[in-house]
Each structure stands twice: as structure tokens, then as C-alpha cells.
């Protein structure tokens, strides 16, 4: 339901309407869910500012290493870290959150060999 329509509605809880005269009333049965004010929704660039190339450069890792990192941290499909945006019927782009970047940075700082070890494990798992 569009927010502009929802703003014009007057909701009455079930069982609380007893008026028998007055303006016509439309009875909708069910729950009202999914009203979203798209004017205040954050843009994807705010939530997910990084593309693959940005992170590859930031962490000095190659394509294969990046795929290993995504696999190890189970990033794809986790809305905390990743989103996939359709750019056409057959293609899409992947974007990553600041939280993912911060997590990866912390891991690499704490365990300098983590990317190499993760890449080795990724290879062993037939990737």
C-alpha cells in the first residue's frame, strides 16, 4: 500500500466500530503491513558503499582471494554485509557494507596471514 493512501485512511480496530449512521465505510479484512516511506529510505550507496574493486584495492587482494574471503565469512546473501543490485535482466552488481569492510580490516590486522590461509582453505575445498 502506498504511504500517500495510507495517510488518508482512518483505522478502526476490529470490534470497536458500532456506529450505524454516517459516511459510507469500506471494510478491509486483514492486517496492514508493508507500508514504506520511500522518500526516507537510505540509498544503496549509503548502506553498501563498496564495490568489489574498491575492497580489492583497499586490502590489496586479487579476485580469487576476494572470493575466498566472501566464502569464508559467508558474506553473500547476508544483508549485514552484502547486497546484489540488478542492473539489467541478465546482470547485476554486488555491493558491500562499511561493516563488512571494518570486519575484514580487523581480521587482517589481527591475523596478517588470514587471507593466505583462507585462500588455501578455499582451494582445498575445490573452489
- Specify the oligomeric state: single chain
What overall form do the CA principal axes indicate? Answer: elongated
> Gyration radius, to the nearest Å?
24 Å
Runs with pLDDT <50, length 5+? none
Number of helices: 6
Q: Helix-strand pattern, N to C?
A: HHEHHEEHH
The class by helix and strand makeup works out as mainly alpha
The beta-strand count equals 3
Major sheet, described briefly?
Answer: 3 strands, antiparallel
Task: Tell me the strand order in the biggest sheet.
Answer: 1-3-2
Helix content: 25-40%
End-to-end distance: 44 Å
Mean pLDDT over the full residue set: 83
Query: Which band does the percent of strand residues land in?
Result: 5-15%
What can you tell me about this protein's structure?
- The chain is mostly helical.
- It has a domain at 44-124.
- The protein has helices at 3-6, 44-47, 52-59, 63-72, 98-110, 114-124; strands at 50-51, 82-86, 92-96.
- The chain has a three-stranded antiparallel sheet.
- β2 and β3 form a beta hairpin.
- α4 crosses α6.
- The longest helix is centred in the last third of the chain and has 13 residues, at 98-110.
- The protein is elongated, with a radius of gyration of 24 Å.
- The relative contact order is 0.13.
Amino acid at each position: 500500500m502506498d504511504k500517500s493512501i495510507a495517510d488518508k485512511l482512518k483505522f478502526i480496530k476490529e470490534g470497536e466500530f458500532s456506529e450505524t449512521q454516517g459516511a459510507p465505510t469500506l471494510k478491509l479484512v486483514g492486517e496492514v503491513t508493508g507500508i514504506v516511506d520511500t522518500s526516507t529510505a537510505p540509498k544503496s550507496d549509503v548502506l553498501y558503499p563498496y564495490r568489489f574493486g574498491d575492497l580489492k584495492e583497499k586490502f590489496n587482494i586479487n579476485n580469487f582471494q576476494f572470493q575466498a574471503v566472501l566464502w569464508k565469512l559467508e558474506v553473500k546473501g547476508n544483508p549485514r554485509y552484502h547486497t546484489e543490485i540488478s542492473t539489467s535482466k541478465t546482470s547485476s552488481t554486488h555491493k558491500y557494507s562499511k561493516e563488512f569492510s571494518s570486519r575484514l580490516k580487523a581480521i587482517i590486522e589481527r591475523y596478517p596471514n588470514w587471507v593466505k590461509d583462507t585462500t588455501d582453505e578455499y582451494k582445498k575445498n575445490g573452489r
